[in-house]
Every structure is written in structure tokens, then in C-alpha cells.
Amino acid sequence: MNIQFKKGVLELCVLSILTRKDCYGYELVNDISKNIAISEGTIYPLLRRLTKEGLFKTYLKESNEGPPRKYYTLTEEGLKAKNQLTTEWFCFVEGVNNVIRGEDDNE
Amino acid sequence: MLSGGKMIMNKSEFLKELSSLLSSLPSDERQEILFDYEEHFSVGKENGKTEDEIIKSLGSPRSIAKQYNASYIVTQAEINPSPSNMTKAIFATLALGFFNLVFVLGPFLGVVGGLIGLFGASIGMTLAGIAVFFQGALGPAMGSLGPYINIPFALEANPGATIFLGLGLTALGLLFSIGNCYLAKFLYIGTVKYLKFNLKLIGR
């Protein structure tokens, strides 16, 4: 699939996962790359950008298996962005599906 | 060992290359970014992955660094607006992928449009030459074409000159077409070279 297209959807994926639970970077990357073929390295720049935009906050938490990990948690603003993007996404998908199946509301 | 034309790196080489590619960022920011990738490596290893596997799925340090650099430059342009910062930002963003759209598709369409125009002109010139030729050769017999072809009175009065003008125009138009073919070929080769250069620039 087109790389640009995937990158656009990545933001929604990250926001959705964080709505369910706080995650550390590897967890997010893993959850996404399980489902979508992407270069995993491209998720970290996105996380950093969205953190700077105030959609997430980060905190360090001890782990059982090694050094503390950086966790990402959704802010109020992030939740709003997630809801808006989700609506847009379903609207978009429905529109594309209509076009693909050749359905037209006007007919 | 070689894989896809690239040296296989280990973790420290990967981080080192990433660090050097991020040299335009402030050092604290660069450290934070590298920290994220170090964490990624250590968690990956805890999950039983090898360095090679982790590096492979991360993608190239170049494409990763490009994203950090672009977002840093864009932020700088936002915080500190100036024409030069804005220009840098626009170009850094374009380099990410819009690059292809604007800098490849744009000029390509322009060049193709120009070529179509030139071919049109050459065909027009050839046809005009043929028309003028027949007007001169057949003269009044071509009365029906009269309304469609306008020839200066001086030529109409001199059918011989009109015939030669027609022949000349036709020949010129054909030469023009041949020239355009060469131009098209040259541009094609140039475009291929440019695309290759572009691919190198964009990475993957």
C-alpha cells in the first residue's frame, strides 16, 4: 500500500491504542506493525511530534525486566483528536466503499 | 556481509549513524530521540529478537532522521518565522514524500505539456505548408478552400512563390517534428536520470 497513505492513518492507530491503555514505545510499534506493514522506525518520530503537539504526555515506569520504560498517555486534547479522526476515518471509508461498489446516494 | 546493497549494521552503528544524521538538532533533543531507540532495542531483545531483526524492521536511519529533521525545521519555522526558515521548512516537508508529487510530477507534466505543444506546432506547420502548396498549385480550383485559407494578396498573385512557400513550410514543419523527436528522446533520458537521483535522495 502507498507509504504516504499509511503514514496518515498511523496517527489514528496510535491514538486509538492509547485510548485503551497507556503504552511504551515498543508496545505501540508492535501492536501496529502486527497489523500494518510499516517501517517501525517511523512511529517514533510520530510519537515525538504528537507529544510536542500536546496529544500525549510521557512518564517513566519501572519494568520487571530491565530499565524503566517511557510510557505514553493520552491527554484530554489527544482524546478529542482521536474522536475527530475516528469520525473522519469512518466517513472516508464509507465514501470510498460507496465509490468502489458503485453506489450513489443520489440515485 | 551484503544485503540489498547495504551493509548490515549492529545496534551501535545504527545509533551512531542516526545520531550523526540528527546533528542539526539541539543535543538534548538528539539524546532523547536516541534514548527512544535504545529502549526499542532493549525491549526488542527482551522479547527475543536479534539486533539484525530489530534493525531490519526499524528501517533505515536515513528515512527515520528525515522525519525528525523535517518536524524540527517546521517547528523552528513556526516558532521563529522568517522567509529562510519557512523555505527550509517547505523543502524539508517536500522531501518527505510530497517531494515526489511536486518535484517529479509537476516538472514532468510541464515537460510533457511543452512537448505536446511543440509537436502540435510542428504538425500545424506541416499541414499549413501542404495547404499553401495546394493553394498555389491548384489556385482557383481550390476555390472551396478559399474561406479557410487566408493568403496575402502578394502570394495569391504569384502562384509559383506560393508553391515554394508551401513546400518550404512543409519541409520546415517536418524538420521541426524530427527535432522534437530527438528532444523527446533526450528529455526521456534526462527524466530517468532525474528519477534515479530522486530515489537516492528520498531513500525508500
Distance between the termini of chain A: 32 Å
Low-confidence stretches of chain A: none
Count of DSSP H/I helices of chain B = 7
**Strand percentage of chain A, roughly?**
5-15%
Q: Biggest interface between protein chains, with counts per chain?
A: A-B, 25 and 25 residues
Computed CA radius of gyration of chain A, to the nearest angstrom:
16 Å
State the major sheet of chain B. 2 strands, antiparallel
Side-by-side strand order of the widest sheet of chain A:
1-3-2
| Global shape of chain A | elongated
The CATH top-level class label of chain A: Mainly Alpha
What global shape of chain B is seen?
A: elongated
Number of domains of chain B: 2
Number of domains of chain A: 1
CATH topology of chain A: Arc Repressor Mutant, subunit A
The number of distinct β-strands of chain A equals 3
- The strand count of chain B comes to 2
How far apart the termini of chain B lie comes to 21 Å
Could you characterize the architecture of this molecule?
Chain A has 4 helices and 3 strands; from the N terminus they run H-E-H-H-E-E-H. Chain A has helices at 3-20, 25-35, 43-52, 76-101, and strands at 23-24, 56-61, 69-74. Chain B is mostly helical. In chain B, helix 1 packs antiparallel against helix 2 (27-46), helix 1 runs parallel beside helix 4 and helix 5 runs antiparallel to helix 7 (159-202). Chain B is elongated, with a radius of gyration of 31 Å. The chains are: A alpha+beta (107), B mainly alpha (204). Chains A and B meet through helix 1, helix 2 and helix 3 of A and helix 2 and helix 4 of B.
